[in-house]
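Posting for a labmate who doesn't have an account.
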Amino acid sequence: MTLWRDMGLDGKRCILVHHDDLGVLAAQNQAYLELGWPTGSIMTPGAWAAQVKSGDLGVHLTLTSEWAYPRMRPLTGGQSLCDESGYFWSTLEAAWQHIRVEEAEMELRAQVEACRRLGIEPTHLDTHMGAVMRPDIATVYHQLGIELGIPIFLPENLEDLVLPEDLRVALTRLAETSPLPKVRLVDSYPVSPETRIAWYVDTLSHLGPGVYHLIHHAAVPTDEARLLPDWEKRAADWEALRHPEVRRVLGEFVHLTYRDLNLPMAKARGF
């Protein structure tokens, strides 16, 4: 990709260690503050969104709320965004079935503005549960990145993701025509907690040259965190990313932030 070449990254192994779901739990935020990697994204409808104040922070655009605790509501009044209790839909299928694109756009813009009201100028955008990837909403998501002049999470390796074929085709077309930078997704979430450390070491050791977006959901295993059904996965990321062997392998990469991309991207596009 031209941007990576302009940044002198061709032939190098580069990584963005990305902390998802900031703002949803104090335990999630605590892990972010203690692990030391600056890149992550905030769920601005989350109760703890205001707790994280600095770093390479983006907006984790949210249109679903899958847990019994904590539940999240839209920042706007869009009726199609909510279930009968007034919360975001709990499943991706329900969200995609009901959400009207114009109400999604209002909500996504409101979440970006909420981040700014916290005193954080977002360095990038990404998506909770992939909910913005419905093709018509993905167009809005992409346009937001263009307007703001910042990267969006746009995976280059769509062939590695489990997606319906029509959705894969639409997203492939978007990725191929977008001037925004694409990254290669590496996602720890599907890996069992018991094998998480070994997975990190093995997977990262075998990655070739490229720019990788490593998603993790590390949370300190507090009583609050244990209220989530997937708390063991989050605790496993917390343990793995503190493990000396995982840190050793991560140390072999060029570490990037999304803020690092902003100025070269602006120059390349004439912002």
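Reply:
Got it, the structure tokens are right above this. The chain has a mean pLDDT of 93.
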